[in-house]
Design brief:
Layout: E1 4-9, H1 16-28, E2 37-42, H2 48-55, E3 61-64, H3 81-86, E4 91-94, H4 97-103, H5 107-119, E5 123-128, H6 132-136, H7 140-151, E6 163-167, H8 182-200, E7 209-212, H9 220-224, E8 231-234, H10 241-259
Parallel strand pairs: 1-2, 1-8, 2-3, 3-4, 4-5, 5-6, 6-7, 7-8
Helix pairs in contact: 1-2, 7-8
The protein binds 1,3-dihydroxyacetonephosphate.
1,3-dihydroxyacetonephosphate is lined by residues 9, 96, 168, 173-174, 177, 212-215, 233-237.
Amino acid sequence: MAPFWVGTGWKMNHTRADAAAYAATLRASPLPRAPGLQLFVCPPFTALATVADGLGDCPVKVAAQNIHWAAAGAHTGEISAAMVADCGATMAELGHSERRHDIGETDEEIGRKVRAALDAGLIALLCVGETRLERRAGAAIEATVRQLKLGLGDVAADELKRCLVAYEPVWAIGEGGVPCSPADAASVHAALRAAMAEKAGAVGVVPPVLYGGSVNLENCRALAAEPEIDGLFVGRAAWQAEGLLAVAEAALEVRRQRTA
Ligand code: 13P
């Protein structure tokens, strides 16, 4: 059975000392080894190695929050896929809403980053999500499927098995965000899955689709109960390790009941 994914993006939070404590808490818990669950953490670049080293053989995947598309060269301030892999990352989160909207990353750039992640042997976690205006205009599916197709534009069918997709509606993320209902998330997830099934054809595997945006301990059970949702991508509620573990435990319990 495919695992249920539960991960967190720390965004611009946590020193190396915080990161070491976080990793130690995960390592001390039996939950990361629970069958049917795959945890991941996306620390800032400065804490990647601390988290990866602190986790040791604890099977929590470590992801960078971004990479540059080039393998190396004159790109001041940027960090390559090989560099994050060298720090212990095995995944790269790409196209998060805050990078699209605060930094101005384009679908074309995100597609190049997905390519660079795969070329370096990383799992690419592509984030997509519509704005409030797009949702109000009835264009949520159109907008997210467009982002998906451009983000995965340079990915071959047999590489989809090294991809994950996170549906993170912009209006649902962060302070003041309104969590998406499980039913609304499910309809977008189904559309994303259908677009990927088309791409996968006979040879490819359709990547898991995670939901992110104001996930917390209160709403995670209802989201995890929705069969279209293959995982949860948590921000604020998992910035402490206890928060990630609590959401993961609750979600796993619901998934186990569903498949029992
Ligand atoms: P919040 O859970 O804080 O809304 O953040 C979600 C997110 O951006 C995960 O990538």
